Amino acid sequence: MIRPPLPVRSPLAAVAAAALVSSAACSDGRAFEAPPRRPAPPGEVRLPEVPDFVKLARVEPSPEAGATAVTGKVAFDEGRVSRVGAPVSGRVTELLVQAGDRVKKGQGLLVIASPDAESAVADFVAASADAEVTRKTLAREQRLYADQAVPYKEVLQAQSDETKAAAALARAQGRLEVLGIDPRAATPRASRYVLRAPIDGVVVERPANPGMEVRADGGTSLVTVADLSRLWVLADVYERDLGQVAEGQAASVKVAGFPGKVFEGRVGHVGDLVDPATRTVKVRIEVANPDRLLKPEMFARVSLRGAPGEAVLTVPAQAVLSDGEASAVVVALGEGRFQKRTIESGPEQDGRVRVLAGLAPGDQVVVDGALFLRAAIDGT
């Protein structure tokens, strides 16, 4: 019987087979076991296969470099608003304007029947008459003294009376000016006091009603007149962002009522006090409002533009996970590894959150699937 020839094995194959045999057993004769795969470090998870629903985004500088996004509220320009109270006591008898009316400086707003006004006018009329009499008396005494018909002490007495009368007239006239009453139009029966607008503007409030009793020391505003062509936006800037805010800095203001419109302004003042509860500082932005679209008490979003080239990192808002005390993101490390990383986040603007600390340019963060990965990392 003829045996088939044995297969010829190459020298390399023999060496490989010997290496496999030698590695299959330890020196003590036991079978070799591969070391177990190391678990992921705390705060990380390693997935053998990344689900398709996990989407990533790269950490990158904000398109508007150096911008600081804050919230605020539209307010009156305090230099262009006048809350008019009653300088006299009395009763409102007539209303001359309505809310929304445009008024000029000096225009009548309402009428008050006031004994105070009547008394002030009567004092002015009496003081004017006394001053005229004393002037004439002084002139007569001076002529008589020149003719040696009266002693000089009569002239001195007339001079004293004339000085006192002039002082009384000045005091009465000053009282009328404080009340806004024209001395040239004063008559002895002027109990009808007209409250007038101190500035040009729009009547934005008029809580006064006919028959309302008013007091000079009441401190109640009867009419509010404001120039709405320029307003303030009072923004709350976090303490950590103060280094990026300065007077004269350009600002953009948006309000919900006009979604596509941007109101341009500038920082007029940076507050000197930090609110201990919110850790914010009030910043005043002065905004032109020629079309009167902005209204006081509107909520506003403000973008304070910083210096060009200033690097500000942002991530999509949906990538930021918050538990009410701290903010975190899930960072993709590659090869199926993901790490939960705490960050210091700033305000949100246009769907992106500013990152103050915790990330670097080029990092990859999880946008979709972040909650799933956080649960896997935390073991929940």
UniProtKB/TrEMBL annotation:
Calcium is among the record's keywords: no
Family per similarity comment: Belongs to the membrane fusion protein (MFP) (TC 8.A.1) family.
Sorted UniProt keywords: Signal, Transport
Signal peptide positions on this chain: 1-27
Residue ranges annotated for the CzcB-like barrel-sandwich hybrid domain, each copy included: 81-227
Annotated CusB-like beta-barrel domain residues: 231-306
InterPro entries: Beta-barrel_RND_2, BSH_CzcB-like, MdtA-like_C, MFP_Cation_Efflux, RND_pump_MFP
Protein name: RND transporter
Family matches, as SUPFAM superfamilies: HlyD-like secretion proteins
Domain Multidrug resistance protein MdtA-like C-terminal permuted SH3 stretches: 312-370
Keyword Cell division: no
Pfam families per record: Beta-barrel_RND_2 (PF25954), BSH_CzcB (PF25973), RND-MFP_C (PF25967)
